[in-house]
Design goal:
Layout: H1 3-9, E1 28-32, E2 39-43, H2 48-56, E3 62-69, E4 72-82, H3 100-108, H4 115-123, H5 130-135, E5 137-141, H6 151-157, H7 161-166, E6 168-172, H8 173-176, H9 186-195, E7 199-206, E8 217-224, E9 229-237, H10 255-261, H11 271-280
Antiparallel strand pairs: 1-2, 2-9, 3-4, 4-7, 5-6, 7-8, 8-9
Helix pairs in contact: 3-4
InterPro entries: DNA/RNA_non-sp_Endonuclease_sf (IPR044929)
């Protein structure tokens, strides 16, 4: 899929690009298009060895990725060194608060098309999957469960809600896991980290605006610790891609053909509607106007 169409599905207008997103402003951004690719490559001037040394100097299992905005510290992701033979960490006995998502469910459970309700269903052990199936949205982990380190988040922040409800965000299934072989999903890069231990792993949820409800994607950096070599530094857009036929690239053929094959970004959904979804979390915005 063309970069222009990806940006539209992320709610960007014609004259906007990822370089305008505050969390990505320090990176050079290149869209890698084509079969089994379709993601954004990021580059900066940070040395891989220095990143690792900086992390290890704190003597902590994981550390937050933070930004300082509006007079407060915003945690946008997590980073850590993944070693071979790491076992899953057991959560310590810390303060337990009711999660924000349970509080909001009590306030909004009658509004079935709101993202809060969908995420409550996804996070529940006995949810019906009706909404998540229709919109194909997962509770995607920022710092993946594969790291065996997510329980540290609760210890660091002092509440169990942060493990399951703060380290996840509403993520399109195709962006979260291997669903369409014509693009790279977050799981593809998580598998790269798993297969290349010991490695430094960093994952961050990226929002177009700080007040948005839904992030537009995930930034992931993977560094080989033994060689101090950066393996991947990417941005995975939180959107669906059209499926091509007979192995052809999904951008081949006429625009009409691409629109027909596209089951999730119909031509009647505008960039403004996508923007409203990321900004407000209203699932109605993902429904074409003619429905």
């Amino acid at each position: 899929m063309k970069e222009k169409e990806v940006l539209k599905r992320l709610g960007f207008k014609e004259d906007e690009n990822l370089g305008g997103v505050e969390q990505l402003r320090d990176y050079s951004i290149e869209y890698i298009e084509g079969n089994k690719n379709n993601y954004f490559k990021l580059t900066d001037n940070k040395k891989a060895a220095k990143i690792i040394d900086n992390f290890l100097s704190h003597h902590q299992p994981i550390l937050p990725v933070c930004y300082y905005e509006y007079g407060r510290v915003i945690i946008t992701g997590w980073r850590g060194c993944l070693w071979k033979g790491m076992g899953e960490y057991t959560h310590k006995n810390v303060r337990h608060d009711e999660s924000w998502i349970n509080k909001r469910k009590k306030e909004k459970e009658s509004k079935s098309k709101l993202l809060d309700t969908l995420m409550c269903e996804v996070l529940s052990k006995n949810y019906t999957k009706k909404l998540s199936n229709k919109y194909e949205i997962d509770a995607g982990h920022v710092f993946g469960m594969f790291t065996d380190s997510t329980s540290y988040i609760g210890d660091i922040l002092g509440s169990n809600q942060n493990v399951n409800n703060i380290n996840i965000y509403p993520q399109v299934k195709e962006a979260n896991e291997i669903f369409n072989t014509e693009r790279k999903s977050q799981l593809d890069f998580e598998n790269e980290a798993r297969d290349n231990k010991p490695c430094y792993y960093e994952a961050e949820a990226i929002c177009k605006e700080w007040t948005d409800i839904v992030p537009i994607g995930t930034r992931i950096r993977i560094i080989d610790i033994q060689n101090s070599k950066e393996l991947h530094h990417v941005f995975i857009p939180n959107c669906k891609y059209p499926k091509s036929k007979k192995g052809k690239d999904s951008d081949s053929g006429s625009k009409d053909m691409v629109d027909k094959e596209n089951s999730t970004s119909e031509p009647n959904i505008s960039a403004e509607q996508y923007r409203a979804f990321f900004k407000e979390g209203d699932l109605n915005e993902l429904t074409p106007k003619n429905e």
